[in-house]
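Progress against Task 2.4 (sequence-to-structure conversion) is shown through the following example record, which the project officer requested during the mid-term review.
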Amino acid sequence: MDTRSRPPLLGRWVIGPRLGRGGMGTVYGAVDRESGERCAVKVLRGDASSHPGGDPRVLRELRTAEALVHPHVVRTHACGYADGRYFLVMELCEGGSLEQRVRHGRPLAPDAAVTLFLDVLDGLHHAHTAPLETVDAEGGPVRVTGVVHRDIKPHNLLLTGDPSAPRVKIADFGLAKSYELAGASGLTRTGASAGTPAFMPRQQVVNFKYAQPDVDVWAVAASLYFVLSGGRTPRDFPPDRDPWLTAWHSAPVPLSERAPDVPPRLARLVDEALTDTPRIRFPTATALRSALEAV
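Structure tokens generated for the chain above:
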């Protein structure tokens, strides 16, 4: 195991085996020495900070996640900087991700999918409207209302609870901006994951830094499309074409062509929610939630 990426965490957390690795970091299982609670530790990729204790701007942004307390947002217990790496300590969601669930199984049934995504939209609404402290362009603290995720996709929609009737939680709030502040934004547009453009509307492709909450709503619709279609993304991404150009120039394929068994009203709603020209059809999580409930 790469010991350089494993933080000592001041001895409070006993770091266990690696659970997974993604574009933004590596996740390890861990146990809290004080409470005995099992948890997950995410160690972020990127170059070591020039600040001995980590860049205060990055740490302040990471702490945004600690302030988000909601049943459908992964709880962040702590964050910090150790051995040249930023880290977060989070609740452990043992059901894996929606991406894994679909990849190793089959498309979710429409009723099950809608139930999960109503919960996702509840968590997203909370994150978009919660009073928080973040950083301004100069790195100073500023009070804001809500935070935009900017990287919602089935990979970070995590399952927990009874496997026969799981609940879902959104992971990784604050990581996209933290990466930028740490000077690692290039990872977001290249190695952060080839799949990321597949869950971005055009507005986010050209204006990633200043993305608004509606891009998260579009990404939720794209994730719903993914689970209903058995792992297909709304757009086709030819391997010989730049994925960012594809995201900008290509229109989503109607869901009914990918998943003909999905009820027509639901398929039409998902297609409508993936409209991003001239603007994103559903600007808020509550707007899409209301429409989803209606079908």
